[in-house]
Design brief:
By secondary structure, this protein is mainly α. 86% of the residues lie in helices and 0% in strands. The protein contains 8 helices and no strands. Helix 3 packs antiparallel against helix 4 (69-77).
């Protein structure tokens, strides 16, 4: 291990110890939050990063208008992602009555929404809990500082350093966890909403085309 890596690890260990007993809950909160965030990215798959998600619906519309449902399904089957998968499922229902189609799609969309949003509430909870734990660390650190002042006075700042370090480090750690979690959660929610809107738009196109053919 190089000297730089050793010094970095030693610095992290020193920071963790200076943060006091609340550092472990703060780190656990961050671990849970980022785990569920990564799990959501993995669940959404390539659709999280694709810039052409809306192209699936446009391809669906053009294919149905020019060549019909069968060709539209072939084109969508060659694509990856949740939007293409859900629209393929809707195309499999072509031939049902309008009522049966709407009922099946309604149930499917409820399932896909639960699938997409699974774990997002945990991310929100962890993003809110981290700074609160940091604030609690601030309070306990300041209490420890005042206890030192009560016992020894304020003539020796070295004695007060531990309490002040605990107050500042826990606050900093909580914010460092909450800030990226909040930003990435917002991006995740925007992407989930876009995916849901594209699925609904595609289903509407299929339903309208079925109504025109009947």
């Amino acid at each position: 291990m190089s000297n730089t890596a050793y010094l970095f690890i030693e610095s992290l260990q020193g920071t963790y110890e200076a943060g006091g007993v609340l550092m472990l809950p703060i780190l656990i909160t961050g671990a849970f939050g980022f785990y569920f965030l990564y799990a959501s990215w993995w669940r959404i798959g390539g659709d999280y990063f694709k810039t052409d998600v809306v192209k699936n619906v446009e391809d669906l519309r053009i294919s149905i208008e020019k060549e019909g449902f069968t060709q539209a399904k072939k084109i969508l089957s060659s694509k990856s992602g949740i939007v293409a998968r859900e629209l393929c499922y809707a195309l499999d229902l072509v031939g049902l009555s309008a009522v049966e189609f709407q009922q099946s799609i309604f149930l499917r969309q409820m399932q896909s929404s639960r699938y997409l949003e699974k774990g997002t509430h945990v991310i929100s909870m962890m993003a809110r809990a981290a700074p609160l734990l940091g604030l609690l660390g601030t309070v306990t650190g300041m209490v420890a500082t005042f206890n030192v002042i009560t016992l020894y006075g304020n003539q020796n700042p070295v004695l007060m350093a531990d309490g002040i370090s605990e107050a500042l480090i826990t606050t900093q750690s909580g914010l460092l966890i909450a800030f990226p979690l909040t930003l990435l959660k917002q991006r995740l929610e925007e992407r989930i909403l876009l995916i849901q809107e594209q699925i609904e738009l595609g289903v509407t196109i299929i339903a309208n085309s079925m109504a025109e053919e009947s």
